[in-house]
Structures are given as C-alpha cells and as structure tokens.
Specification:
Helices cover 35% and strands 31% of the residues. The chain has one domain: ABC-type transport auxiliary lipoprotein component (Rossmann fold), CATH 3.40.50. Strands 1, 2, 3, 4, 5, 6, 7, 8 and 9 form a nine-stranded mixed beta sheet that branches. The chain starts with a helix and ends with a helix. The chain has three helices and nine strands; from the N terminus they run H-E-E-E-E-E-H-E-E-E-E-H. Helix 2 crosses helix 3. The chain is elongated and about 60 Å long. The chain is of the alpha/beta class and 217 residues long.
Length: 217
C-alpha cells in the first residue's frame, strides 16, 4: 500500500475525531449556564443625625402613615427617563426595598429633629395621635434629557388633625440633584441627596404648620 492510499484510509478517522470534538464543545456550551451580571441593590439612607431639639410638654403627637407611591414608582426597580412620559428600568440594579417603604423611617428621623412633636410614630394601624402625616411619592427617577443626568424626587404631603379629620396643610415638595456620571450608582447617590433635601423641606413645613395651628387656637 503506497503513501497516498494510507492517507486516504487515515482521513475518515481524523474527520471522525474532529466531529466528536466539536460535538463535545457544543454539548458543554449548552449544559454550562451562561454568566449573567450579579444584580446590585441600593438603599435610601438617613442623613447624619444630631440631638433633636427639646419638645414642649404640650407638643402634639404625630402619627405617620406608611408612605404610598404613584403607579410605576411602587416597586424595587430603579427608574430612569430618556423621553417624556416613558419610564424605563435598569436591568441589573434595584432598590433593596420599594422607595415608599424605605422612606417611612427617614420621615420619622427627619421630623423628630425639629422638636415640634412630643413623639413621632410610624404606624399602619389606628394608634392614637393628635396629628397624622400622609405622604405619597409622585416620582423618583434619573433623567437623561440633560447632561449630566439628574435625579428628581417629588413628594406630596398632607398634615391632618386626627380628631376632626381636617387637613391642616398640604404641599408638594420637589428636589433635583445632578449625578456625577450616567450610571445607576451615581443616580443612587443623587437620589439620596434629593430625598434629604425634600425631607428637610417637609420637616420645616410640619413644624410651621403645627406652630400656626397652635396660634390659631
């Protein structure tokens, strides 16, 4: 048998070996899970707290109902906007909890600092109190229509007399903070700044509303 005949006989064996190798690689790629990015979870945090101002013995008690959120803003998804009226969500970045749920303790901490109330309580039930604060997140979104992008936070608040069920005062608060770069983490940092700015405005609003109601009696 000459060399050419030996080559022809060996070729089918080589082709079979190559085919088996390709099938093995294909099977491995199908069975092995594809790598997906690990989701990142972020929080809204309270500002550093100082000792609250001393409250008057006659100061009212404030009950804070758990905040609500407008449709589209009531989940853990972090929202961004590139076009007006179109909400989009980051694929691999989320809040650790819906923002409305994270906001409740932050409201308590911020309003306690004013010293305008003898106690500030977050409760979903019918706990007794002199006044009640109802809040709703209107929007919390990172906006990419400008450069740099910015986060806008809007909160609507009602201060209610628990005895008469009368709305003593209400206001819509809004703050915006620029993001250092156009990514979710920078947006989260900006969101925390915007939330703290609104909480500061809300605290002043509550203290002034209580003072006005006291003078009116």
């Amino acid at each position: 048998m000459n060399a050419m005949n030996k080559t022809l006989l060996a070729r089918p064996g080589r082709l079979l070996a190559v085919a088996l190798a390709l099938l093995t690689l294909a099977a491995c790629s199908v069975l092995s899970p594809t790598s997906t990015p690990v989701p990142a979870f972020y929080s809204l945090d309270s500002a550093p707290l100082t000792a609250p101002a001393p409250a008057s013995p006659a100061a009212p008690t404030l009950i804070i109902h758990p905040p609500r959120a407008a449709a589209g803003f009531d989940s853990q998804r972090i929202i961004y906007v590139r076009e007006s009226h179109k909400l989009e969500y980051f694929a691999h970045s989320e809040w650790i909890d819906p923002p409305a749920r994270m906001l409740g303790p932050l409201l308590v901490a911020a309003i306690e600092q004013t010293g305008a109330f003898s106690a500030v309580l977050l409760t979903p039930g019918a706990a007794g109190g002199d006044l009640r604060l109802d809040t709703e997140i209107v929007r919390l979104q990172q906006e990419f229509q400008t450069s740099p992008s910015r986060v806008r936070f809007t909160l609507r608040a009602y201060l209610v007399d628990e005895k008469t069920r009368r709305v003593l005062a209400w206001r819509q608060f809004e703050a915006a903070a620029d993001a250092a770069s156009d990514d979710p983490y920078s947006g989260v940092l900006a969101a925390n700044r915007a939330v703290q700015a609104v909480l500061q405005q809300l605290s002043v609003f509550c203290a002034e509303a209580v003072a006005s109601a006291t003078l009116a009696k």
